[in-house]
What we know:
The chain has helices at 15-20, 58-70, 98-109, 140-157, 171-181, 202-207, 228-239, 254-263, 274-285, 291-305, 315-322, and strands spanning 31-38, 44-47, 50-56, 75-81, 114-119, 133-134, 137-138, 161-164, 190-195, 244-248, 268-272, 309-312. The chain has 323 residues and is α/β, with parallel strands linked by helices. Helix 2 packs across helix 3 and helix 4 crosses helix 5 (171-181).
Amino acid sequence: MFFPEYRARRMRRNENLRRMVRETFLRIDDLIYPMFSAAGSGIRKEIPSMPGIYQQSIEHIVEEAREVRDLGIPAVILFGIPETKDPLGQDSYSDQGIIQETIRAIKKDLPELIVITDVCMCEYTDHGHCGVIHEGDVDNDETLKLLAAQALSHVRAGADIVAPSDMMDGRVAAIRELLDANGFSRIPVMSYAVKYASAYYGPFRDAADSTPQFGDRRSYQMDPANRIEAFREATLDVQECADFLMVKPALAYLDILRDIKERFDLPLVAYNVSGEYSMIKAAAKMDWIDHDRVMMETLTGIKRAGADLIITYHAKEAARLLK
Length: 323
Ligand code: PBG
Ligand code: ZN
């Protein structure tokens, strides 16, 4: 194949031809929509750094979940903003906690919508860390008990999938064991297996009021410079019986997505995180980029890199364009 006989442009001449040779497809089925459920009622507060995304109380969450369902999006992932926070994050494993109440409300009206829950402590602890603090650091093994209890109470409330995002060692096994011991062997675990200590989570922490009150998350989340370590993390989670693997964030880690896709045979999820969303919104607001085209190009790129599913704040906007 040499120029001038071979000419690549022949295959790009018009849209139908381009459709015929297209390699990657973003589908509504690939999308998971994140939602922030706040304790109280009558709340619908836009997150300043995330236009179009709201902290909202349960009745509004159910309303938006219905819209998500009507767009054909198969799943939502829930984050909770509790009434009160404490050192042990007790709301997170209370059967009357904000997430448990939210799950029941969604499942009552929309039983077929897949409800995934983020399992972590940071939205519920007053110190904002993803686990219990002991002598100034997050205590791994003490935290495992609380994470497993949290996952169990989500499932009891009706969650379809639990997604631990804390990055404690051994948490997938701890959750699997407690779920199985309580008759929930049918519930999959979606592990945030490869989660980096990223500045791209900034807007989310405003949304979830979960900024650490001291220090940072670098003693449990991964160093952005590391690739081989991602394989070790994913291997451990596979051994602990994870059902999905996740890489997070997405855009600065597309190489990792590709690597994990090639090395592991579990469905792979990419988390297109808050900062990635906010950057597109901000640039579009300045009229510096074409919002819809940049959004679709970004989501397609995440799929092309190897993601099977994408958690994205753009899910509703993308679904409207894909319909
Ligand atoms: C909780 C959690 C975070 C995100 C998802 N689950 C924040 C963090 O680890 O600091 C980030 C999501 C986003 O930025 O969109 N551990
Ligand atoms: Zn956390």
